[in-house]
Amino acid sequence: MTELDALRQRCLQCTACPLARTRNKVVFGVGSAPSDIVFVGEGPGQQEDLTGEPFVGAAGQLLDEMLSIIDLGRHNCYICNIVKCRPPQNRDPMPEEQDACIGFLQEQLRLLQPKIVVCLGRIAAMRLITPDFRITREHGQWTRRDGVSYMAIYHPSALLRDVSKRPETFSDLLSLREQAKALGCRQYE
Ligand code: URA
């Protein structure tokens, strides 16, 4: 068993926060490991909770389309979330829930060794880039920390609600591809 598999097994049994009581399935993450590019969303929705896989609902379909624009897919990158269990009624995960869960993400990132982490939406950006992150102003900007490049793009759910944000996201995706090439990410070899 790989270390990542062992981590998944621990995560599947986690009862560290109240979300464990209402979840159907833990949504640990999917993709290649190690991975030079990791996408981090906010938390599972209804479809994800039922299937155990991240981004399989309507937002997930859009994410797949966004990835395919820059020649990425679930097989050659990694996709996970800040919290691994569904917050009821799709509310934002609470700070205590994020605190209880963040250790799993930190371990995932240690094992995946990404060169690039892309935050999908405000919640992930506030947790991974800076607590006062403003998605409307700061999406598409690169931040480098501990040898890893971070960027946030709009969450696919936001792009479903507001199509006027899509052109900016297209530019952000092109910037992601450029950065990934510049950093020698294996996806573009
Ligand atoms: N939204 C998220 O942030 N994550 C998912 O896995 C699905 C929808």
What fraction of residues sit in β-strands? 5-15%
The percent of residues in helical segments reads 40-55%
Characterize the main sheet: 6 strands, mixed
Q: Which architecture would the CATH scheme give at its second level?
A: 3-Layer(aba) Sandwich
Derived from helix and strand composition plus strand pairing, the structural class reads alpha/beta
Q: How widely separated are the two ends?
A: 28 Å
Write down the CATH class. Alpha Beta
Name the shape in a single word.
globular
CATH topology: Uracil-DNA Glycosylase, subunit E
What's the total count of β strands? Answer: 6
CATH level-4 homologous superfamily: Uracil-DNA glycosylase-like domain
Mean pLDDT: 98
How many helices does DSSP assign?
9
Number of domains: 1
- Rg from C-alpha positions? 15 Å
Bound compounds, each kind once, are: uracil
Query: In what order do the strands lie side by side in the largest sheet?
Result: 1-3-2-4-6-5
Order of SSEs: HHEEHHEHEHHEEHH
Which runs of at least 5 residues are low in confidence (pLDDT < 50)? none
Topology (elements, then pairings):
Layout: H1 3-12, H2 19-22, E1 30-31, E2 37-41, H3 46-51, H4 58-69, E3 78-81, H5 95-112, E4 116-120, H6 122-128, H7 135-138, E5 143-145, E6 148-153, H8 156-161, H9 166-182
Helix pairs in contact: 1-5
